[in-house]
Design brief:
By secondary structure, the chain is α+β, with helices and mostly antiparallel strands. The chain has a domain of 116 residues. Helix content is 49%, strand content 16%. It contains 26 helices and 20 strands. The strands form seven sheets. It has a four-stranded mixed beta sheet. Strands 16-13-12-18 form a four-stranded mixed beta sheet. Strand 14 and strand 15 form a beta hairpin. Helix 8 packs across helix 9, helix 21 packs parallel to helix 23 and helix 25 runs antiparallel to helix 26. The longest helix is centred in the C-terminal third of the chain and has 32 residues. Bound molecules: zinc ion.
């Protein structure tokens, strides 16, 4: 391949440059080496005014970060992260990096990354950071995104799926690696906890009757648009995590390596992957795998200890369904792995639950276990229903015999099971005081998530103040001690807890002092940008806006218009979408038509931000009804990026039948013209139905809890 480009530009492709020659009229011819076999979607060209930042070599591979001219200093984090992550990936796959060079290039107008062989493209906000505004979260996300795209160089590029229905294997696998590999590089980041949190998040979405299965036929544009969703990425990753736990990490890695060696420089299917894993595992994993790939939904495994004879665990499965769900029942073949303490030692054991119910004899227990965790390492893709004293014993001594990730997993399970009606809200809320002061900030946050039940639609309006008081009592002291501003010498865990807990207590706990401080700090920051640590800026501006008035709105709008930095403009637009006063939420939506903002930046925060509060949740739907035609003209409308398909989500905050029907009748025919729209509408309507049902059941429970409080 040869490119003819202006002589001052840098030209890049998948392979190294072979030669460059001057041409007339200020042009040059850049000739590239021939590439190994590549699918067409991975061919990439980049031409522009770039600087190349050298990141050294990994083995024989030269590694560079390519930035818009003059931005080299913003590449420091990328230069630090990319080489060691690449080395760890080579070790994992047991195959050297497959291409001759690795360039990571910033694409200024893009908001996603793409794994082109040897020339990975990234959004500027992901790959670069102004050193003065760098944050912990950004550094971790950068490592995750880079690990993801680099993992694709093997899974996706070296071996490419035969058809789009197996996109999940590329994306699920790369998503799995985006925590696993940075976790090896920086163990102090505790990314095993992030793995568990991501699984619980995926399960919440997968409980919907309208959720897709991981693997689905791709027959048209709607399928393509829907295929790149959280189910593909996060459920895919969670199912791979479960299989690694079940097969064992070493065997599983052997299977991955075998799959890559067998199909290098060619196409493969998920069946090829299953065959490779099965052959090293010495058992056929295909039926177990396909029960998770080819049907949507989350299994719920109930576990009960039976200690009358030889200790055993009685297991039963059903589909985990939110209260009021209309989804049909189904079963899975579930790899269930448990951990338990018996006779003074901790034991681990796995078996496959293929029937509706079965007994699992506890091989190493002579006496009844002191405690048992029905989801060892919290790696299984199933929700646990704890029978009898199982939950109490698992969490005895504040769960000190469990890892942090396991404590977070158990609390996440409890939170989910309130929504399915398995656990009473009062039991879940009763765990909050036990874990609200846990030594691990991630566990404190899991407890805060359970307390978040008190901000749902299910709490009657007149009891919200009592709910806020509960949150202040459990978390107020910690939040006040943390304050809005970082203190010298704090570790990253503490700083990350501040980011979640302080705005939670300020907003949901209605902590006046924290709100007033936020307002003061926000006004100060608008005058002097150095006053707030970058990681707290977003949360602080959002909180100030939530309680803020028209003056603050005008100041934020002016600041957003004048801001040239993409990341800061994003924070300011988020804040503009966070006002709780309905007239200000309406004013914010008008900014969608302002020439001052790119609609790709302003669309999500301004349209969906107001759904967070009861006061403003009608505003976006009313706005869309009034302005549909100009909106459709304004928004990007491409397959895979049709913003119109997001419009039905304006009903995401509704919890009553009247508004539901209005939404349905407004969008029912229209969504057929939005790529991916019909499923988006179905999911929003289902969410409203479930909210209505949850309120009926949980309302009285939460009322009883708060009245006693
Ligand atoms: Zn990917």
């Amino acid at each position: 391949m040869t490119l003819h480009v202006p002589k001052d530009d840098m030209a890049l492709s998948n392979t190294p440059v072979l030669s460059e020659a001057s041409e007339p009229n200020g042009m040059k011819a850049v000739r590239f080496k021939a590439s190994p076999p590549l699918p067409s979607y991975l061919v990439a060209l980049a031409v522009g005014r770039f600087d190349a930042v050298d990141a050294g070599h990994v083995g024989p591979t030269p590694v560079r970060v390519i930035v818009p001219r003059g931005k080299s200093r913003e590449a420091a984090d990328a230069v630090t992260a990319i080489p060691p992550l690449l080395k760890l990936l080579e070790d994992y796959f047991g195959i050297p990096y497959p291409y001759e060079k690795l360039d990571s290039v910033v694409m200024p107008i893009s908001d996603f990354a793409m794994e082109n062989a040897g020339l990975i493209t990234y959004a500027e906000s992901s790959l670069l950071a102004d050193p003065a505004r760098d944050t912990i979260v950004h550094r971790r996300e950068l490592a995750g995104i880079c690990a993801h795209e680099m993992a694709h160089q093997w899974v996706g590029d070296l071996v490419t799926t035969a058809w789009w229905n197996d996109t999940w294997l590329n994306e699920g696998f790369a998503t799995w690696m985006e925590r696993k590999i940075p976790g090896q590089w920086r163990p102090e980041w505790h990314l095993d906890v992030s793995v568990v949190k991501a699984r619980i998040g995926a399960m919440q979405r997968d409980q919907l009757a309208s959720a897709r299965s991981i693997r689905q036929p791709i027959e048209g544009n709607d399928d393509i648009a829907n295929a790149f969703d959280d189910i593909t990425y996060e459920k895919g990753a969670a199912v791979i995590e479960m299989f690694e736990r079940w097969i064992g990490p070493e065997k599983f890695r052997e299977g991955v390596q075998l799959y890559l060696k067998q199909h290098a420089w060619g196409n493969a299917t998920a069946s090829d992957f299953e065959a490779a894993i099965s052959s090293v595992a010495g058992k056929d994993i295909a039926p177990v795998f396909s029960s998770f790939l080819d049907q949507a939904g989350v299994p719920e495994v109930s576990a009960a200890l039976k200690c009358t004879a030889k200790p055993a665990l009685h297991l039963a499965q059903k589909r985990s369904l939110p209260i009021g769900s209309q989804a049909k029942p189904q079963t899975w073949e579930i790899p269930v792995c448990v951990a338990y303490e018996a006779d003074g030692a901790v034991h681990h054991q796995c078996s496959v639950l293929a029937e509706a119910q079965a007994d699992m004899e506890l091989a190493d227990a002579q006496t009844c276990p002191a405690w048992l965790l029905p989801n060892d390492r919290e790696a299984g893709y199933y929700q646990v229903a704890y029978e009898g004293d199982l939950l109490k014993n698992a969490l005895s001594d504040r769960g000190s015999h469990l890892t942090v990730a396991e404590r977070v997993g158990v609390l996440g399970d409890v939170e989910l099971s309130v929504g399915t009606g398995e656990t009473r809200a009062s039991v879940a809320l009763g765990l909050v005081p036990v874990f609200s002061k846990d030594s691990a900030p991630q566990v404190v946050q899991a407890a805060a998530n359970i307390a978040g039940l008190l901000k749902t639609e299910s709490v009657p309006g007149d009891l919200r103040e009592k709910g806020a008081r509960f949150i202040r009592q459990e978390f107020g002291e910690q939040a006040m001690a943390l304050g809005w501003l970082a203190k010298p010498g704090e570790n990253e865990d503490t700083r990350l807890l501040r980011q979640k807990l302080v705005p939670f207590v300020a907003s949901v706990g209605d902590q006046k002092e924290l709100v007033q401080t936020a307002e003061k700090l926000a006004l100060g920051w608008l005058k002097n940008r150095k006053t707030i640590t970058p990681e707290m800026l977003g949360a602080l501006l959002d909180t100030a806006a939530e309680f803020g008035d028209r003056d603050l709105f005008n100041l934020l709008r002016t600041a957003a218009i004048q801001e040239h930095d993409h990341a800061l403009r994003e924070e300011l637009l988020d804040a503009l979408g966070s006002f709780r006063k309905p007239e200000l939420a309406r004013k914010a939506l008008d900014l969608l038509f302002s020439k001052d903002f790119d609609s790709r930046e302003s669309f999500y925060p301004l349209l969906l931000g107001p759904l967070a509060y009861a006061e403003t949740r009608d505003v976006p739907f009313d706005f869309v009804k009034q302005h549909l035609d100009p909106l459709l003209k304004l928004l990007p409308r491409e397959v895979g990026e049709d913003y119109a398909a997001v419009l039905p989500q304006v009903g995401g905050g509704f919890c009553d039948a009247k508004r539901r029907d209005e939404l349905d009748s407004f969008f029912r025919d229209r969504v057929k013209d939005y790529t991916g729209g019909p499923r988006a509408l179905a999911q929003t309507l289902e969410g409203i139905d479930l909210c209505i049902s949850a309120r009926k059941t949980l309302g009285p429970e939460l009322t009883a809890f708060l009245n006693k409080y």
